[in-house]
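Encode chain A's predicted structure.
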Amino acid sequence: MSHYVSGSEPVDLSTTSLEVDWFAVETFESEDWENRWVVESQGPRAYIEAGELKVRPVDNNRKQAGTTIWMRQALPPDVVIRVTASTAAVEGDNACNLNFFVHAREENGSALQFGRSGLYRDYHSIPNYIFTLTGGFMPGWARARLDPGFHLLSDQRQFRSEPDTDYEFVIVVSGPRLRYFLNGRKVHDFTLDDPLEGGWFGLRTWFSSVNFEQVQIGRLIGETPQG
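Encoded structure for chain A:
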């Protein structure tokens, strides 16, 4: 990951111009990527190849198929996250699962401790936001949840992921308001009475062949409504 301070830099989405101080970018081109990321996996392999972080199942055991890859650096409370990723052209045993944990911490609010098994339920007892996009051999959906408790915040069944497809994700956390954009389309937009106050970011997948290509992280400085 290269760290840089670029000043206020506008980023245009569908209805808003965000001013973001981008401070980190990961392109997965360097062999020392594990100095910046931590892998928690039940079995799938995570490795870099051709400038991508690839995750691949090693067998057909769906009960041992979860992988979370945490960024070691914590996020600020008001943050913009941009991820470009793709699904491999694998039919059948590919859930095309592209998920994210945001603002994760330990149950008592302390810094996240790495070393969990990669089993999905391991994360449901600690504070975090979960954004999921899935499809492939499954019905498919885009959902947002809040932990602890795995509370459903938004469920959009008209979105699903497909094999051999490129995706751009943008997540915007601004105080109590959270937004999630998929390829420029707004999918989730909601507010919480008791929002989480910063934490750790993780790439998550289950029983899928996926490629994470780039992650950008920035502090949200402000925004100007368009139109």
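Confidence is low (pLDDT under 50) at residues 1-8.
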